[in-house]
Design goal:
Helix content is 34%, strand content 24%. It is of the alpha/beta class and 201 residues long. The protein has one domain: Maf protein (Alpha-Beta Complex). The radius of gyration is 17 Å and the shape is globular.
């Protein structure tokens, strides 16, 4: 029996990253667009995981299929962890990814401490009483100017520890091997395997 999961995001980049990990497990991933679902749940949580759950549960309530959502962002040490859960809304409405990236660079102009990390929290609502969660991180530092054409969001200004390339200079598979979402997805995949193994007993 085919396992069908709805990826509860309007971000096509995230859909691709979910598919890369989950489809080899025999899971058919469909986007909100493919399902004809419109969902823009208000992210009222105070943590990445709370917001991921809110988004996944909203879609599950609409379609009744396993629904998985990610909430992620960049946390900068010198800014007390900002933008954090507000990474996608940094600077307010009317800004695009590039605007937010340059705003962060501007706010970090005088800072020598460039340490930062990405967090990805994944929540999958399998049913009313069953939720699977996973979290992943990648640590590094901010560059002073964008580099690279791959990735999205803050990737062009993030240099992972131990690497000379930003995450926007890495090809998909190379980035996925070390990224916060890749790490979270691999943990999620292991928990899914346990879930299906237990269900088959």
């Amino acid at each position: 029996m085919e396992k069908k999961f709805v990826i509860a995001t309007n971000n096509p980049h995230k859909v691709i990253e979910f598919k890369r990990i989950l489809e080899p497990m025999g899971i058919h991933c469909v986007s909100l667009k493919e399902m004809g679902i419109q969902s823009d749940a208000e992210e009222t949580g105070t943590t990445f995981m709370e917001n991921a759950y809110i988004k996944a549960k909203a879609v599950f309530d609409i379609c009744g299929l396993p629904s998985v959502a990610d909430d992620s962002g960049i946390c900068v040490d010198a800014l007390g962890g900002q933008p954090g859960i507000y990474s996608a809304r940094y600077g307010g409405e009317g800004l695009n990814d590039e605007d937010r990236m340059f705003l962060l660079l501007k706010n970090m102009e005088s800072e020598e401490n460039r340490a930062a990390h990405f967090t990805s929290a994944i929540s999958c609502v399998m049913g009313e009483e069953r939720v699977i969660e996973a979290e992943g991180y990648i640590f590094g530092r901010l560059t002073r100017e964008p580099r690279g054409e791959h990735g999205f969001g803050y990737d062009p200004i993030f240099l992972p520890d131990g690497y000379e390339m930003t995450t926007a200079e890495m090809e998909g598979d190379a980035k996925n091997a070390i990224s916060h979402r890749g790490n979270a997805l691999r943990e999620f995949a292991e928990k899914l395997k346990e879930y299906y193994h237990d269900a088959d007993k």
